[in-house]
Amino acid sequence: MKKAFDNEKYLKLQSQKIAERVSEFGGKLYLEFGGKLFDDYHASRVLPGFLPDSKVTMLSTMKDKVEIVIVINAVDIAQNKLRSDLGITYDEDVMRLYDLLQTRGLYVGSIVISQFTEDNNPAVNFQRKLESYGIKVYRHYWIEGYPSNVSHIASKDGFGKNDYVETTRNIVVVTAPGPGSGKMATCLSQMYHDSVRGIKSGYAKYETFPIWNLPLTHPVNIAYEAATADLNDINMIDPWHLQAYGKSAVNYNRDVEVFPVLNAIFARVLGESPYKSPTDMGVNMVGFCISDDEECTKACKQEIIRRYLSAKVAVRKGQASSSLVDKLQITMSKLDLKEEDREVLIKARGYAESKHTISAAMELPDGRIVCGRSSDLLSPASATLLNALKTLANLPDVNLIAPSALEPIQKLKTTSLGDITSDLRCNEALIALSVSAAVNPMAALALENLDKLRGCQMHLTAIPSHSDAKILRRLGVQYTCDAAYSCKRIYFN
């Protein structure tokens, strides 16, 4: 897919905008980061050319001024809430984020556990675990009447009972593993404590989507609705911005609905509110960096279809209700989309029908589509992966891994390891390919093309195993699948 986003321009404009907001407050700025700080794959999918770690790269340009606070909701810890794109829990992702940020030279000052209660044993244990590594952990508590009871919230019995997070730098980036973690409440609590201490501080929000200066019906904003369908987010024209400036700006319902309350809290904490609209709070410059609107539109349409297909799978697995599919069907209709508008889906289903077995299809960077099918040796995902690598390396249709090399692995799986299936999953096939590369030049050549799979489109005619799905995600393959199981078993590894 062609680039549709100027990432260099974005890094420059975004850094400038944040610096401007810091100077406006003349003190400490609490900058709430919405979306993903690392691995912002939604943004990279709908804005081809946007790099998944662009936000961290931007922060690295001002790292001497930035301190990061990671927030996690105690309820999410207790419920083992999962970050579906990575397949890990929120508490695991907090630790992953901490390590990744530190390795990029960014200072992570502390971790806040929001909505903390003493009887939440998983949250208590998580705090002990973090502190055993020497990490500062602060507790923020559930506040009765939040966010509507302003007088109680901005008092010693509201924000006042929260731990004060000690920070040492002017820009405090507040991030989290996902939505609902308590980022905004953490920022507001800090501003309350700062005001008590006579410290001047302000708040700004960096939320990539929806993009405020694009039309409400732009595919990028519709794709955001698809991404947050499970949260009941709805894009809308910001009425406060329209009233204050006579200009249309796009925001989403939660920010619009809560703005009067936030405004009242700002006024109580700061003396007066610095903002006239929820859009005013933002520092997002993404909309100024789209370089190819047509290509961006194509990418957004594919993202919406992917979200729709993923929702059908979630319903099939019992992880979501059918109402989610209904919502996404309405979103699809806004752009007159149907699932057959995904070319790899048509190819995979056609190949499956011709071969009478579970199949998959992958579109390569140059537009060629390769297929693979289930066999006694390989899962459909691993077969397609190997075929794609052969095609990218311009190799003939030969076995890159000798069957004699695969048989011992299959025997190990089904005997010593007690695996139910003998076919090789993606990780096993890639390890076998790596071993073969030592003696087979064609295998080595195929392996050199592995990085080219990132961003490739793929569709499977059945739900892949957990291990196959994990490897496809790690390779950056944008896969979808039909909402069907490959067999009658109810456990897949």
Structural features, described:
The chain is of the alpha/beta class and 493 residues long. The protein is 44% helix and 14% strand. It contains 19 helices and 14 strands. The protein has helices spanning 7-25, 41-46, 54-60, 74-78, 90-103, 121-132, 150-153, 183-196, 219-227, 239-245, 253-270, 293-316, 322-334, 343-355, 380-392, 403-414, 426-437, 441-447, 466-475, and strands at 28-33, 66-73, 82-83, 88-89, 107-116, 137-141, 171-175, 201-206, 235-237, 250-252, 359-363, 369-373, 457-460, 478-481. A 6-stranded parallel β-sheet has the order 6-5-2-7-1-8, with helices on both faces. Strands 12-11-13-14 form a 4-stranded mixed β-sheet, with helices on both faces. It has a two-stranded antiparallel ribbon with strand order 3-4. It is globular and about 75 Å long. The two termini are 32 Å apart.
Secondary structure blueprint with pairings:
Layout: H1 7-25, E1 28-33, H2 41-46, H3 54-60, E2 66-73, H4 74-78, E3 82-83, E4 88-89, H5 90-103, E5 107-116, H6 121-132, E6 137-141, H7 150-153, E7 171-175, H8 183-196, E8 201-206, H9 219-227, E9 235-237, H10 239-245, E10 250-252, H11 253-270, H12 293-316, H13 322-334, H14 343-355, E11 359-363, E12 369-373, H15 380-392, H16 403-414, H17 426-437, H18 441-447, E13 457-460, H19 466-475, E14 478-481
Parallel strand pairs: 1-7, 1-8, 2-5, 2-7, 5-6, 13-14
Antiparallel strand pairs: 3-4, 9-10, 11-12, 11-13
Helix pairs in contact: 1-3, 8-11, 9-12, 9-13, 12-13, 15-17, 15-18, 17-18
